[in-house]
Predict the 3D structure of the following.
Amino acid sequence: MSTTFNVTLPSGATWTPAFVATLDEKKCIGCGRCFKVCGRGVLELVGLNEDGERIRVDLDDENDEEEYEKKIMTIAHQELCIGCMACSRICPKKCYSHAAVLV
Ligand code: SF4
Ligand code: SF4
């Protein structure tokens, strides 16, 4: 029988991590706030050109904006998520959904 994955905290309380499940790219405005608070390397900013093709965004290059129409955040490494929900809390567009996992 499977159960929800929980963590017992030093206080004795139980915490159920809510792992990132989906990111609604249609709602995303590419503000990058979630990227800044995720310390796990889960997220990746990409550019979309006029044909809807994805282009790697170089965060250190401030002059590459002509190469794409808009930027969106994507879930690049879901397996690295620790379920902290910091991305959701800071997202102004409510792009994220999260889910506990069964073990
Ligand atoms: S839940 Fe936490 S670890 Fe997972 S993507 Fe969001 S900020 Fe990163
Ligand atoms: S905080 Fe929300 S709107 Fe901003 S880049 Fe992240 S997912 Fe997109």
Remarks:
- The mean pLDDT is 93.
- Residues 33-37 form the longest helix (5 residues).
